[in-house]
TrEMBL record:
Name by which UniProt lists this protein: Class I SAM-dependent methyltransferase
Keyword vocabulary terms for this entry: Methyltransferase, Transferase
Keyword Glycosyltransferase: no
Pfam family, one: Methyltransf_11
Signal sequence coordinates: none
Species whose genome carries this gene: Candidatus Segetimicrobium genomatis
PANTHER family attached to this UniProt entry: METHYLTRANSFERASE, N6-ADENOSINE-METHYLTRANSFERASE TMT1A
Residue stretches making up the Methyltransferase type domain: 66-161
GO biological process: methylation
Amino acid sequence: MAQTDVDSRNAQFWDELCGSGLARSLGITENTPESLQKFDHAYMGMYPYLQPYVTDEDLAGRKVMEIGLGYGTLGQLIASRGCLYHGLDIAPGPVAMMRYRLEFLGQDLGDRIRQGSALEIPWPDASFDCVYSIGCLHHTGNLPRAVAEVHRVLVPGGKAIVMLYHRHSLRQVIQIPVRYVRDRLSGRRRFASFGEAARAYYDTNAQGEAAPHTDVVSRAQVRQSLFRQFSRVRIDSQNFDTYVLLRGRIVIPRERFLNNLARVLGTDLNIVATK
Ligand SMILES: C[S@@+](CC[C@H](N)C(=O)[O-])C[C@H]1O[C@@H](n2cnc3c(N)ncnc32)[C@H](O)[C@@H]1O
């Protein structure tokens, strides 16, 4: 697919805010401050390991950018840490949501929340002390370029905090192939190819369609190739969606695996890289 096609399909697909399924499951139908608080509580409950990536950083007075805004939970947390928050997303929906949220924080936004691509970050070199991007760059269609762009806009010594999907996760190695074979054997062929079925395992919209593009990466690829330009790289495997059922009841919830199996075979790699 040509890059312009990936970009326009991403802008359309992600206009439905990432997290809309969670919002629906919570009965959220409009975005009042109370319902966003309810959403954020549920989001942080699902991904509790994300919070320290924000609260352990000294962000006060720093210039910080987030790429890939979604429903805005993390962005609001970052912006509330006393930094000069900037946001970038290819789709209009997440941009509007972040503006809406930050207006409640009483922030004078100017043009700090922009619609645009991670592949051409619309800020000059060395603009930011810190760049956050959780679950976004692997959707761009050109991951090496997206990481190079993050490197470009960081000041020397600046930090990138990036989540990418893990190639050697339980999800990749077992769950996706098993589900695909099971669907084929039972005559349910919902997706045209294995690749599309794999993408749908990660991200679907309300119609059940898969995200337009998704890459997965290994730790070695992160260190030796994608983040090679950075002086220091730390990688944490996190997130898990497996639980144990007995007679239709969850006897071991996914949360019990977050501090053990997920640290090895987790769905996501959270990368902290210093320029
Ligand atoms: C899976 S969502 C993640 C949202 C949020 N960070 C979270 O963790 O909930 C991916 C986000 O990346 C954005 N995105 C996809 N491709 C992009 C691109 N080329 N440039 C900027 N943002 C992009 C989407 O619009 C979407 O908001």
